[in-house]
Structure formats: structure tokens, C-alpha cells
Amino acid sequence: MDSLYVPGVEAGPRSSSRSPLHLHPHHGPQHQLHLHNGREAGDSQQIQHSHSTHGLPALSVPRVDSFSGNSPVFPADLSGYASNYNNRRAEINTVAHEAHQHRQQQTHQRKQLPHQRQGQEVGRHTDIPASSTTPGLFDGLSSPAVTPNSPAQPTSHHGHGVTPLREESSAVKAWRQKLFDLEDIVLLSNEEYETYFPWIDNIYSHRSTQQYKSKPFEAKYYDCRLKGRPSGTKKSDDPLKKKRKRNARGLGLCDVKIKITKYEPGSTAELEAAATNNPELGQALARIRHQDQVFYTFQRINGSVTNGVGDGKPAEHKHDLARSDQIKKSTRHRELAEQERERKQSKRQKDVKRPPKPSSLSPWKATGLAAETAKKHAKEGVIKFYASCFCPFSQRVWIALEAKGFDYQYCEIYPLQKPKPTLLLEANPRGLVPAIRQGDWACAESTVILEYLKKLVDSGHGNLVLLPTDARLKANCRLWIEFINSRIVPSFYLLVSATEEEPKRQAAEKLERDIAELVQHAEENGPFFLGDHFSLVDIHLAPFAIRLPYLLRQLPGWTQPLLEMRWKKWVDALEQNEYVKNTTSKPELYEKSMGDLIKAFQARFQGGDV
Question: What's the confidence (pLDDT) of residue 348?
């Protein structure tokens, strides 16, 4: 029976491994089957092609008697073949369609710019290597090859180099240990070799290469790096060669020798005999048998020729993998170290450009609404505000900044911290809070800072007038601000710091008298010192007034001050003021931080704020 070879079509079912279709350049129109006008176009004789060249079996088509349109009419004794022929003909059309799509894709790629092709190459190379989807050498390992979850990136097929792995994954660790032990012959595809060998090139040192003229492979021989430099080998005297820091070690610490053989495509027959008693090697051969690429084998070899043992067994490592990593880092480990150095250098450069935030070792953090306000003002602002959340002097300035609506950055500082943060010392050489910095200018002391903020309001900055415009009222306010700082604040400190009953009683009586005197000179109807207007007098008093119910009510000898109704009305108005509420933490913070507040008060009355 005459037959006609139809290229691109297999005799059996089509294999998915044939996609995308690769057409041989000799498959021209003269080698294809065309049926038209009731006759066969082309020679009716069988066209012979080398199956080894194309990798495709021939399709046998019987002689036909006649044609009906474009469909052949087979002899009666071959009627059963007609349906099979029609199916094959449909398959031929499918192959032709795929070939057309393949040619269009190649044409499109040639028209693309280089950077567009490179982007597609990178995207394609992030997929799983073909060799990793089939049963292979490391089926016994948990993750034998590159997977989508593995950081390993397959190697480029177009000479663009190997994409470095981002970290040593579990798959890489398994392969490193396997190639370190080398209990039997290990076979790697080209992709696997280029992916994993750079992880273990620190273990072995190349000694010689053996090339074969009549055989399709090349062998390279390696010693374990711990064997040391062979005798008679001179060190390089090249002045341009980079000098490496080497770890001192003795010679002959390990006698392991390995051979890495590179096989040309289609050379699997060279290993068929060795695979007879090696199931893993047999699986690996089956995996790469139809892949048109080079592959490699790793194996330990007998070193008896040089070491004189003559026991017939290859030497084993006298150390572990970690020791090899100590002697020298692999290519991939060095790349990871370089990436880490670049990351740290980039971070340092960013830190230099961005002014560092003052360090805070404070055990106290603002809570409640004060924490929310501090978070809102954590970013860079026009004014840097150095404060402590439990400090009443810091809260004075904080209330004013909120009332004025200034753009500021809240910087939490622990006033008892040693050594003091450098940025705080630049703003206040005594290292106490509160302090502010605006550009190159800095200021400390709550009373002085509040006076500066008031001046900004008077000059049109901000949205709240902190002192009345009337000269007499303004002078009256300054008088009672001084009274709060010189009378009420010291009395407050004496009461909270007294440790014996009699001093506590005397301090409580003095504070009660001072508060009563202040209340008598406040506006009668309130609720604030000047009536309905919230002023600097209220800001100076508020942090201490709101702390009294929490800190002093439990002290023996403390009673509510005189004129209780007017005082209570004043304190309630301060607690409900939005600027005071937004800068006040929960009562537990003030109770727990009482000890630090007393220590900070001691610094305050030695001169300066907390």
C-alpha cells in the first residue's frame, strides 16, 4: 500500500508535549497533502523523511479510486478506513491552524522592541520549569524543584544570565544537601543545574577537565575545598587580582572527589546501563529523554589513585555542609549578602535625608483621646513639639497648639531618660520638656512657649485669641498666671511629694487656700476665669485642675476647696473643653506615673520645666 507522509501529524493520538508546534523548515507546500478539483496535487508516491530529524512518525494514506469534490472515495474493501481518514484530515487542519498561529506569534515578537521582549521573557521565566512538573530524581524530597511558592527563579534560555534566588528555600536546602552527600549518581536538567549549582559551588574546587572527541559529553573533576591547595600550585602574583579574606585551615581535611559530566542533547543512551540498578536515575532519564537540551550528572568518584587507600570506595566528607559554608560562601549566598548590604546602605541614605525622630524610652504612652491626637500629629510638621504624656507642663503647650490649630509634630520624650536625646538637648540644653523647634529656632519652658504662641495668634497665625485686647484685663490675666505658677503649682508639688502625715496636712491646707484665692478673683458666673472666654489663665491651670480629683482625693487631709460650687463649675468646664479633652489621657496613666511625676517635679523646682 502506497503511503504519503503528512508533516506535523503523528500516527497515534497527539501528545501535549508537542505544543507549541515546531515546524521543520523543509515542510514546505510541496510536502503537504492538497486535494482539489477531483485530483491529488503533488506526487502520489510516498515522500520519505527522517523520523530522527523530525521526531514524528509517518501517516500512511491508501490509494484512492476517485474524488467527490475535495473528499476522496476509497475502494469498497477500505470503506472502514474512510471515517478514520476524515478524522486524520481534520487533525491535519488543526495542525495547520496551530502552525499559522505560531508563525504569527513569532512575527509579532520580531516586531517588538527589545525592552518589550525582555519584559515578556521575565514574565515567562517566572513560571515553573518544565522539568519540575514531571516525576524526577528527587521525588523523595518534600520540594524537589522550583515551585510557584519557591523563591527560585528559573534560568533564562536566551543567554540573559541566571536570575538570583531571593532566599534559601526549603527546596534549595534539600538540593544542597543532596549534592553535598552524593550517595549515588544525580542527574540534573540544564535548568536545574543553572538554578541549583550556584548554591553549592563553594563546596567543591575545580581541578581538571576531560574532553572527548568521539563521545557526546565532557567531564570536569572537583576536589572538596577542604582538601586545600594542591602542592606545587603557585599563588597568583597578579597585582590586579582581588585579594580575598581567607579562613586559615590545614591541608588534606577532606578527600572527597566528584565528577560533573555535561551531556549533549540526545545522549541519554550513555546512561542507560547505569540506570539499570538506579531507579532514581532511570526516572530522571525518562524525564529528560525527549527534552532538547544539555543535562548534567554528579557523582562521587574513587580517589584511591591519589590518596593510596585502594579500598575501592569513594571517600566521604569528614565535615558537614555548614563547615563548607564557613570556608567560603556560595555564589548565591554572596549575592544575597550583597543585596542585604545594598538594602542597608539604601536605608542609611534615606535616614540621612530624613531627620531622625528623637528616641523615647518612656514607659508611658498617651491613652484615650490623647493617644488619638498624638497619632494624628506623628508626621513631620512646621513645629516639633517635645513633650511627655504625664507631664502637666507639657499638656499646657499641647492645649495651646490644639486650640490654635497649628501644624505640629508630637514627639514623646521620657524626661528621666539618660542620656537625653540629642534633638531634645538642641531645643533645651537642660533636656527637660516641654520644648519646641521651628526651623533653626528652638524654645523651652511652658510659660515662655505659651507667650510665643500667643504672639503668633496676635500676628494673625492661629484661630484663637488667648488674652483679651483690653490692657487692664490683659495685665490682670498675667498677674494670676504668675499666681498659678508661684503658688498653686508649688503647693500641688508639696502635697504629692510629702511622705509624712503632718507635712501632707499642711500642704493640703495651703493648696486649698491658694485655690480659694484664685477662685475669688475669677469672673463670678464663669465658667472660665474670664467668663465664657477660654484664655491663657485656664490653659495654665487646666492640667493641674483635672489631676486633682484623681491624684489628691485619696490623700489624707484633702478636702474640696472653698467656694466649692464655683470651683466645680470651673473644673467641669475645663474637662469638657475640646482642646483639654483631646490632650488628656485616662486617669490610670496619671495615677501609675505619680512616682515619675514627683521626680520630674524635683527637676522643675531646681529651675526649668519637667
Answer: 83
Cell of 57: 512518525
| Distance in angstroms (rounded) separating the CA atoms of residues 603 and 415 | 9
Q: How far is CA 189 from CA 129, 261, 294, 436, in A?
A: 10, 12, 7, 66
* Mean pLDDT, range 60-79, rounded to an integer: 48
Interatomic CA distance for residues 546 and 538, integer angstroms = 11
**Which of these, 599, 523, 174, lies nearest to 364 by C-alpha position?**
599
Report the Cα 72 to chain-centroid distance in Å: 66
- Contact (CB, 8 A) for 500 and 507: no
Distances (CA, A) of 571 to 260, 319, 534, 539, 566: 86, 77, 13, 12, 9
Distance in angstroms (rounded) separating the CA atoms of residues 49 and 44 = 15
Least confident interval from 136-145, 398-407, 559-568: 136-145
Which one has a higher pLDDT value, 64 or 185? 185
The SS3 call for residue 383 is: strand
- pLDDT(449) > 80: yes
Strand partners, 297: 187, 261
User: Other CB atoms closer than 10 Å to residue 282's CB: what's the count?
Assistant: 17
pLDDT higher than threshold 60 for residue 33: no
Residue found by looking up cell 486524520 in the block? 88
- The model's pLDDT over 530-541, given as tens digits with 9 standing for 90+, comes to 999 999 999 999
| All three cell numbers of 410 | 508630637
Cα 519 to Cα 138, 480, 522, 526, distances in angstroms:
87, 10, 5, 10
Give 270-314 pLDDT, tens digit per residue. 888 888 888 888 888 888 887 788 999 999 987 644 444 555 678
Nearest to 179 by CA among 259, 111, 245, 115: 259
Of the CA atoms within 13 Å of residue 169, those in its CB half-sphere come to 19
Show the DSSP H helices in 309-445 as ranges.
321-327, 331-353, 368-376, 392-404, 422-427
How far is it, in rounded angstroms, from Cα 29 to Cα 46?
A: 15
What does the pLDDT read at residue 160? 40
Given the C-alpha cell 514546505, which residue does it identify? 28
Amino acid (1-letter code) at residue 147:
T
- Cα atoms in the 13 Å half-sphere on the side-chain side of 462: 19
How far CA 291 is from CA of 17, 42, 127, 218, in Å, comes to: 10, 34, 17, 19
